[in-house]
Batch of 2 targets.
Target 1
Amino acid sequence: MDFQELLTWADQQVLAHTGKPLDDLQKSILRGTWEREKYSDIANSYHCTEVHVKKVASRLWKTLSHSLDDGEQIKKSNLRAMFDRWRVSNLSVFSRHIGHIGNVSVCGNTSQPSALPKQEQTNSSPSPNNSKPHIDHSEAPDLEYCCDRSQELATLKNLLLEKRTRLIAISGMSGIGKTAIALELLSEIEDKFDYIIWRSFRSAPTLETTLKSLIQFFSNTPQNGKNQKQEEQLSLLIEYLRNNRCLIILDDLHQILEKEKLVGHYQSGYENYRNLFQTIAELSHKSCLIFNSWELPLEIVDLKNKNAPISCLKLENLGKTANKILEKEGLLDKEKWSELIHIYGGNPHWLKIAATGIKDLFEGRVGEYLQYKPLFLGEELTIILEQHLSRLSELEKQILLQISSQKEPVSISWFRENSERSDSDIFKAVRSLRKRSLLEKIEDQSSTLFAVKPIFQEYLLEQNFST
Ligand SMILES: Nc1ncnc2c1ncn2[C@@H]1O[C@H](COP(=O)(O)OP(=O)(O)OP(=O)(O)O)[C@@H](O)[C@H]1O
Ligand SMILES: [Mg+2]
């Protein structure tokens, strides 16, 4: 028995169970465990925390335990022994390196995951009694997740498992970690569901396409030639959600929302998604739909006001925990990190972009970088910020520019004195900008003040300088 055999086997099991091959950290955990290293040593060599390694390892042992027929649990302490036992009892299969493991056919060549089914399906009629969940992760990305979001995760788990919420909206700026937290959530709760499906909205699928793909997954029957009416598709979907505990994750929902309008309107041709969300929120069933989006469709807030079992979680600044990213990136001047995190809104993706620039230009010296005003944001981040700004209506753009031209935060009454816009326009624009996370709210003693988020303030300053 050698480590390569274990790695091949583990890769096949994880691929069969999750649709994805082992990632680098999982491989490091296996190697470290094989070499009898402590979790703390594995964490040190992987440059992440011991807590994170333990979490990932615990999920890995759980996944690998699925392949044992006798219900025994794999742990760090018994990995070698359990694998050896499995190997001996499956020797004929294993030695040919091709065959049937668990209930999924696998090939020996782990470098060709496409030869394996991305989607684990065992029967055509959904049954809540099957012990293993049916999972389709094929459209989910692989992301790093090292900064703690345990509070938000606990909230999501509580909504999903205790409160049985039917619709959960995770919103926040690009790069704040919506996809990452949804993936982390999935890995912790997947055994609580019969069916789990992840769909990306990058290509802005129509409602018809989405419903077809969901029904195909739940029924395990191709839907290509079928032309069902939308109401029929919706009622079929609800049947599946009633009879089984299903989890649907729709990532990047903002792709179907309209640009250059106030927040929350659908693009033309996508308005019927309202029916999907309304149906899922209002009809009784035992499943949940989670979506990630930069902004929320208008009816979500309305459904919430009507006491439907739906919930919205807005992801915010990572705060101090973002230090871990800067540490991993090897930045210097620790005393300046909180300022950098504040300017970049505690956004993990944007901080990674900043770190790369600071290393290129200043060998990692954060203090030196912060001295140059307006800050140099770099092409990559500029494109992202422009994507956010390009979604604004003309009214929002004007109000945003007016606020950013002031050194201090401004109140609504300041607008009344300094703007020709009607009260109603000002209220509409400020609310919309808040929902898009572009404005910060500051409670003063007697009034509420608004300021443009620091990174957008820097961007607008940079633009003024360059024009
Ligand atoms: N808790 C975290 N710790 C460390 N890195 C994180 C964390 N959350 C997200 N990231 C990293 O930040 C980047 C952006 O995360 P993610 O893709 O989840 O953002 P998003 O909110 O889904 O963005 P978008 O709206 O553009 O899809 C990724 O590289 C991810 O690995
Ligand atoms: Mg995302």
Target 2
Amino acid sequence: MILKAEHISKSFGSNKVLKDISFQLDTSTITGIVGENGSGKSILMEIIVGIRKPNNGNVNRNGRIGYCPQRALLFPHLTVQEHFRYFSIAYGINNELAYELSEELLKHFNFKKYEHEKIKNLSGGTQQKLNLSIALIKKPDLLILDEPYNGFDWDTYQKFWNYSAKLRNQGCAILIVSHLLSDKEKLDHIYNLENGILE
Ligand SMILES: Nc1ncnc2c1ncn2[C@@H]1O[C@H](COP(=O)(O)OP(=O)(O)OP(=O)(O)O)[C@@H](O)[C@H]1O
Ligand SMILES: [Mg+2]
């Protein structure tokens, strides 16, 4: 068991976004959470990652966690490569390993040609490649992805699933949030978040 969430609830005033949510994730699995806009998917991810507190309930995590937020937290005036350096230092990853991994990701997701470009000059899809790659350089045991392929072209979308399958084979537990999960056969489990309940 890599993640266990028990009886999570969260309200904003009278708006009960999450009512009583419990689930767990095991190693080597890919799990999807679907739900309409405003159903509370991102709030639930923030609680799982630990950057937001629930009103009730608790979350137990084991191992390193990688998080790709729905809205990319990138610095407009830094380059792609500067982001890799910044985040690998923040995560305490050794220089050589960080360099190897960032090269692998730049090549796999086909954005090496932008490595010295500032974020403010990049397309939305390329920024999203970097947002995802920053979660991946941590070599996480648990990967939380909030709408990870938003803006990806078809080829990049395929590469995303190939990379996810590889990580799962290495033992990673992946949680993917999306309002569109058309490739259901790629997932071990799918939950639907509706009216504050996960089914
Ligand atoms: N800081 C806040 N204060 C008040 N209400 C909030 C706050 N943050 C989120 N909400 C509300 O919580 C609900 C769930 O928001 P959330 O962002 O989790 O939805 P979502 O399922 O991720 O939607 P989307 O598919 O659009 O990304 C929404 O009704 C939103 O208005
Ligand atoms: Mg969201």
